[in-house]
């Protein structure tokens, strides 16, 4: 069986010591596309899009700090605690989506507080740009030939020639397309329910869907963290479980409180 061979250079453009990587382009590009989605939401709900002028600064900082710290402390704690200055070298790679999410939530809280907005309203609507960014990050992982899947003989398996010649599950694509489907689901729900109910239900859908996908697809991934004890789940699965539980509880709360006054602050 002939499998597709992936051998794309992760560097898109090189100018002397400067490098433009596909990952960086997709990562930053997703934030600008996400901002366009949020501007559409603001206009749709009669809010001033100009309030979002410095929104990307908050979200980018929150994402990078949260994702970097989670990667360093959850996936490679022994190395980074022994070499703390390495934590600052983000350009070497190593970002964890669970930490990025926590960082974004904190950034949203400070942004909403500074601009006198409802944190809960904003949190619900950032789920749509968030799903888009999650998908683009996985496309970036594909260009980096990282977050590899387990060896597979499936006809759609891909050979990552920059790593080895084993056909593997293209788990980066599994996740990316799953997150694009999540974006479509969130937009559909948002457009077909009241603004009040959207504020309640969207975060629950996001947490439950995204981290259930993440939990299940870990079974097709190579392990990203090695510990001395034999864990029944991967690190990614352990980190996903609290978010899955949160999503279930959130959705149940949304339906139970559907006819009650919405939380505004």
Short description:
The chain has about 260 residues and is mainly alpha-helical.
How much strand content do the residues show?
5-15%
With strands numbered from the N-terminus, the spatial order across the biggest sheet is 1-4-5
The coarse overall form would be: globular
- What does the radius of gyration come to? 19 Å
- What's the number of structural domains? 1
Largest sheet: 3 strands, mixed
Number of strands: 5
Q: Helix count?
A: 8
Give a description of the structure.
The structure is a single chain. By secondary structure, this protein is mainly alpha-helical. The chain has one domain (4-11, 19-256). The protein is built from eight helices and five strands. The protein has helices at 22-44, 55-75, 77-82, 97-115, 119-143, 171-192, 195-217, 235-256; strands spanning 4-6, 11-15, 18-21, 158-160, 167-168. The strands form two sheets. Strands 1-4-5 form a three-stranded mixed beta sheet, with no helix packed on it. A two-stranded antiparallel ribbon has the order 2-3. The longest helix has 25 residues, at 119-143. It is globular, with a radius of gyration of 19 Å. The mean pLDDT is 89.
Give the SSE map.
Elements (H helix, E strand, L loop, with lengths): L3 E3 L4 E5 L2 E4 H23 L10 H21 L1 H6 L14 H19 L3 H25 L14 E3 L6 E2 L2 H22 L2 H23 L17 H22 L9
């Amino acid at each position: 069986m002939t499998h597709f061979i992936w051998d794309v250079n992760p560097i898109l453009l090189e100018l002397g010591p400067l490098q433009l990587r596909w990952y960086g382009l997709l990562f930053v590009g997703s934030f600008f596309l996400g901002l366009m989605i949020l501007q559409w939401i603001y206009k749709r709900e009669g809010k001033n899009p100009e309030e979002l002028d410095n929104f990307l600064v908050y979200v980018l900082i929150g994402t990078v700090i949260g994702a970097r710290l989670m990667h360093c402390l959850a996936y490679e704690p022994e190395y980074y605690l022994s070499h703390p200055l390495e934590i600052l070298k983000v350009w070497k790679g190593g970002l964890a989506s669970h930490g990025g999410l926590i960082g974004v939530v904190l950034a949203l809280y400070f942004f909403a507080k500074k601009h006198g907005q409802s944190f809960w309203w904003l949190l619900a609507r950032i789920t749509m740009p968030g799903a888009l960014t999650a998908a683009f990050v996985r496309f970036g992982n594909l260009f980096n030939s990282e977050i590899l899947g387990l060896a597979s003989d499936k006809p759609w398996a891909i050979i990552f020639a920059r790593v080895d010649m084993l056909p593997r599950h293209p788990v980066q694509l599994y996740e990316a397309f799953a997150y694009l489907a999540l974006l479509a689901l969130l937009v559909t729900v948002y457009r077909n329910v009241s603004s009040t109910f959207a504020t309640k239900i969207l975060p629950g859908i996001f947490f439950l869907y995204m981290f259930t996908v993440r939990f299940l697809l870990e079974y097709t991934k190579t392990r990203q963290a090695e510990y001395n004890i034999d864990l029944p789940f991967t690190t990614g699965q352990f980190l996903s479980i609290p978010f899955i539980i949160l999503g279930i509880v959130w959705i149940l709360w949304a339906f139970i409180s559907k006819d009650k006054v919405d939380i505004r602050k």
